[in-house]
Write a structure and sequence with these properties.
Structural class: mainly beta
Distance between the termini: 12 Å
CATH topology: lipopolysaccharide transport protein A fold
Largest sheet: 11 strands, antiparallel
CATH superfamily: Lipopolysaccharide (LPS) transport protein A like domain
Shape: globular
Number of helices: 1
Helix content: under 10%
CATH class: Mainly Beta
CATH architecture: Sandwich
Order of helices and strands: HEEEEEEEEEEE
Number of domains: 1
Radius of gyration: 16 Å
Number of strands: 11
Low-confidence stretches: 1-25
């Protein structure tokens, strides 16, 4: 499974996480718009850093923070996917999933990690140390919030608090992930 939030968070390159998943593959290309006060690329270390009022947008949402660091794979790697991205200070992510549901996540920091080992893909988003996600159906908070994209697991960490609406058909969807 692929998340469009991953593209927003990583390709710029920015919901949270864990904000949405779908069974359709991510588009092969997508327009992403990034603004920041400053930026820096280290070709040897394969790291790009954006500073000062970083805002990344695409068709699915918006990520804002004060510093965005993206680690690119080495030259010649079989996968051109960034291996890690860190959004720091006043992280604010807003996105809409394929069903039109909104997610708004705020945290001090967001870490995206991606890797393939022995043919197994590992892809996680970690938001914290304290993070809150608000959906159309309520909100939840934890320390930290961790979304495992491949396993579709969500770890709320400690200090969990959750408020959500119960639908009239007696079903609940406090996590807004399906």
């Amino acid at each position: 499974m692929r998340t469009k939030l991953a593209l927003l968070f990583v390709v710029a390159l920015a919901a949270l996480a864990g904000a949405q998943t779908n069974s359709t593959p991510a588009p092969k290309s997508q327009e992403i718009y990034l603004t920041s006060g400053r930026g820096f690329f280290d070709g040897t270390a394969r790291v790009v850093v954006y500073y000062d009022h970083v805002v990344v947008t695409n068709a699915q949402g918006r990520l804002a923070c004060e510093r965005l660091t993206i680690h690119l794979p080495p030259d010649g790697a079989p996968d051109s996917h960034p291996t890690n991205a860190v959004a720091e200070t006043n992280l604010d992510v807003f996105c809409v999933d394929n069903k039109g549901r909104t997610n708004h996540l705020v945290a001090d920091k967001g870490i995206y990690a991606y890797g393939v080992r022995n043919g197994v893909t590992n892809e996680t988003f970690t938001f914290g140390p304290h993070a809150t996600n608000t959906t159309d159906e309520g909100w939840f908070t934890g320390e930290p919030l961790i979304w495992d994209v491949q396993k579709t697991n969500f770890d709320f960490g400690s200090g969990v608090e959750m408020h959500f609406k119960v639908r009239s058909d007696n079903s609940t969807s406090p996590f807004n992930m399906k």
